[in-house]
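Re: the request from the purification team.
They wanted to know what the chain is likely to look like in 3D before they choose a buffer screen. I agreed to run a prediction and write the result into the notebook, where they can find it.
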Amino acid sequence: MGIDSERDIEANLQVGPTDKGMVRIFVESGGVEIPMDFTPDDAVEIAEEIMAAATRARGISPRGGRR
């Protein structure tokens, strides 16, 4: 089981600032709530990693092969 394994699980994702100056990523699924707080600098790094993954994913066809 890894990042490439498909699953049929629904989850809610929320992202926003906290009153303590942190950035919170909040995930809820099946009654489990996971709040994750990050410094603004760490949040920017995470956002950059997401953007890089999206760029790489654009180059992969839905069947898993390259275009």
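For the purification team: The chain has a mean pLDDT of 90.
Please add any questions underneath this entry.
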